[in-house]
Amino acid sequence: MATAPFIMPPQAPLNFNFTPDTLLEAVHTVLDDTRKLQDRIVATIQPEYATFDNAILPLIENENVNIGLRKHRKFHSSTSTSAGLREASIESEALESKFAIQTMMRQDLFKVIDAVHKRGERLDPESQLYLDQLHSSFVKNGLSLSSEKRDRFAEIKTEIQVLHAAYLKVLNSRRGIWLQPEELEGFPKERLSSLEPGKEENEGKVFLPFRKPHLELSLKFVKSGVTRRTIYTENDESCLENAPRFKETVLLRDEAARLLGYKNHAELRLEDKMMKTTKFVNDFLKNHREQLAELGEQSIAELSALKRKSLREEKLWDANDKEKTEFFIWDHSFYKDMIKVGKLSFDEKVFSEYFTLESSLEGMLSTFSSLFGIGFSEILKTDFDRFGPGHVLTWHDDVRVFTVWDDESNGGSFLGYLYLDLFPREQKYNHAGHFGLHPGFISPTGERICPSSVLVMNLTAPQPSKPTMLAHDEIRSMFHELGHAVHNLLSRTKYAFFHGTAVPRDFVEIPSIMLENWWWDPTIIKTLSLHYSYLSDDFLAAWKKDNPGMEQPGRNIDDELLASLVKTRHQNEALTSFRNIHIAMYDMAIHSPASRDELESMDLSVMWHQMLSDITMMKGTEALGEGWSGRHGNSRLGALMRGYDAGYYAYPLAKAYAQDLFTAAFEKDPMSREVGMKYRKIVLEPGANKDGMEILEEFLGRKPDLNARFKELGIAH
Predict the structure, then answer these.
(1) Can you give the pTM of this predicted structure?
(2) Are residues 158 and 55 in the same domain?
(3) Are residues 162 and 183 in the same domain?
(4) Does the first or last residue of the chain, that is N or C, have fewer Cβ atoms within 10 Å of its Cβ?
């Protein structure tokens, strides 16, 4: 990637110089200062004299700063190599959660806020929205309850926070399985060689970590169905101690919602979303599943036939062995890939040779630059010292930092910082994700404070003879998460509370899912492709060594391979969608029970596996006579403990709305600067200071179409 001359940004980057002690000192200082501010407001302002400016604005200005500090401290629990710092980060989050609960229980503070809310001052729209939501948050945290019920509500919130922290700690711990290398036949050799070798009782084995890239590769390429089953089921059981925590969390959520007068937790959670009712969500999910059912049945039939054919060819078929005759969930990726390679002639390995991490990243950033009128400039490690002694720019040596600017046509203003943490390491967050590390807002002096975003992934690290090469799904995922980062960087809100991706959960995925369409456009893919052998003489030599006597491939991906990729786009679309629909329907089922008794009687683990089989049309170990009990796939549902509770429907919903946005605005010309700038202004800049449905309707000029995705698949009924 070409580097531009260093330009000192007007706002310094964050300083990652925390130690466990200084991190905890910082959180205590912030909480003490905030408590003093709250005390001063209630001590000096009688409710009848309270106004937005004298009572609410000081709270906002304090929060503007503290949101960023909180995100910064919390981030270390997901990425730091220091066990002490991770523990301090988790402890700080617990302290802040406890303080937040205490704040929301302050009747004296609520009286002041309630008085301002009732006063009905004429405020700008963002200030009015903030006041409305602040008032609502106190009510939803029990301030309208009797003293006894309010105390119980506070206990519940504290218990939930403790359960969340313990659940996520297990999820982020070192998990995996020791296997003989021959059990992993089919696993990519270059990835196999990077697995940790065993010692002592594990001598001769390798450690397969239960991290997303390793799990996906093993289920996709390992030839042995028994090994795939072992990996799948062992991963399901790797967080066993979380199962009772999950049930207790769901019960506590339900109790809290009923204390507030809601029928269930889902009704409470949906009140502030685009989709306001459990009926709408459940009807949407049911219809979504029904629309895809026929495609799903066709896919199961095709994959089952392929499994039988393949086993017969390998002389492994046994009509009396259910392991062979049934189609299991751990078979899906393996036989789906077999169709891609065989029937559709798509070679993922050859494709990935045209998309190294470096060239793909450059192409992605270039795409965002062209669409939205921005530029990215990397801060080289040789320039880190420019920010002064004691300023630690990153939390790990692998991390890269970029400054982001408006281009000259948009005024050249500084927009913020983008961090990339792309390779796996122990105790790091083990999925792809975007972290809004610091929000933007307007300071009391009128200065715009710019945001910081982090892209976290777990890609295979480069080797001396080979760069990191990306599969198409990794490219799609990376572009998706960068889409969240760009949303955060381009947002322009008055208050940090509304900044960027702080939008409702059922809106937040729409912009990024829409952007995935770019990586199915043949022209864009071809333009951004570059075979790794052209990157350096060393890489060319390595390629020749691996491919003796063969002619060097063309610089760009050939049309035949490109056409085969495009054919894979909707391959097994239904079965892939069923996985998200399953989680979403399970999420709604456990969070919207008809009664408390019904919830208490639910076996959440059994329900998870029964719904998985019913909705996805794929079998689990129950088909091998192991029954439904004793399995706990719901013990590693991180999303439902990270804020997607009664909200996982956002993923299938976003697919529908995102396709409508793309088809209506970008399909004819995905690289249109005019449409891109309109999208930036209407969809990305408002953050959460406008209703999500209003944003979509303003951009489209009509109500969004939930059937757009089905129309694209040719199955709209």
Answers:
(1) 0.90
(2) yes
(3) no
(4) C
